[in-house]
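Q: Convert this sequence to structure tokens.
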Amino acid sequence: MRLDQIDLYQLHRIDPKVPAEEQLGTLKDLQAQGKIKHIGLSEVSVRQIQHAQTIVPIVSVQNRYSVTDRGSEDVLKYCEKEKMGFIPWFPLAAGRVSGSESPVSRLAARWKATPSQVALAWLLARSPVMLPIPGTSRVEHLEENVAAGELKIDANKWQELDRMARAS
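A:
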């Protein structure tokens, strides 16, 4: 990678076969050596985050989360309280958000936006600690995703999208 230091190392899943203290202790050692600047966790519960924080400072969490998948709501709220970045994994839910029958697609058409833009705008409006990173391999998708930052979801749109997404 030709780096002296990794700015953010996300530990993707705490391995249940290896004590968390050992895994996080290794990252703490690498941080002390200057090889890692910040440490984040992926696919964790609030309890796991709290335990990790007794070993090493945690700056971000990456859990599955989208307008149609709110299973990590408690983790997001904890990140807000602790002022940690929250990186929604699978933010566009691979088709569930953009499928022609999805509630997001129906609202996007009315709002003159794409379903992906609506889903990303919702994430951005949802929390000040939200850091969506939608993957893309094409420039036009990148441009579409960036344009989502300009889409404003007012309180009425928020409630409508929230109701429809929860009902799906």
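The beta strands are 6-12, 36-42, 60-64, 85-89.
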